[in-house]
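Retry 2 of 3 after timeout on previous attempt. Resubmitting structure tokens to design endpoint.
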């Protein structure tokens, strides 16, 4: 009886070790899970929705990353669909259609100045830039201003 118990215990112990080894070897992967996208949102403070020729409206932004990732930089670009105007980073350059500009802070302000008396519509895109090998994330926002002159 004691011999049978020792034999059963030995078989159970060996089977347990085999099962543990199989589980630990099959659950591992040689692939390193590297995050390729760094999600974030952009908050915009309320702003006026009407503008007159020559008038400037300030747009205030804050980038809110979903995590704290080292070496992440952000760029901004814009594209004007309707109207004529200029978009300038406060304390920075005037933006050129579809040219990327590096943002120096996660909080920034843009001044839009109307140069025509018609409605204005433009797209602003903020992108993250961590390193050349990662897939960038972006947030696109459309801004529209009705004309006060018409």
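Retry 2 succeeded. Sequence:
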């Amino acid at each position: 009886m004691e011999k049978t118990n020792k034999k059963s215990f030995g078989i159970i112990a060996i089977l347990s070790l085999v099962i543990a080894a199989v589980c630990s070897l099959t659950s591992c992967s040689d692939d390193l899970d590297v995050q390729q996208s760094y999600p974030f949102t952009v908050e915009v403070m309320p702003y006026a929705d009407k503008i007159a020729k020559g008038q400037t409206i300030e747009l205030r932004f804050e980038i809110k990353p979903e995590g704290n990732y080292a070496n992440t930089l952000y760029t901004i670009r814009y594209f004007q669909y309707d109207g004529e105007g200029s978009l300038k980073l406060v304390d920075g350059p005037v933006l050129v259609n579809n040219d990327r500009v590096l943002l120096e802070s996660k909080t920034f302000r843009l001044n839009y100045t109307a140069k025509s008396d018609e409605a204005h519509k433009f797209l602003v895109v903020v992108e993250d830039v961590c390193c050349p090998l990662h897939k960038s994330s972006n947030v696109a926002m459309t801004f529209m201003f009705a004309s006060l002159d018409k």
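Attempt log closed. The chain has a mean pLDDT of 84.
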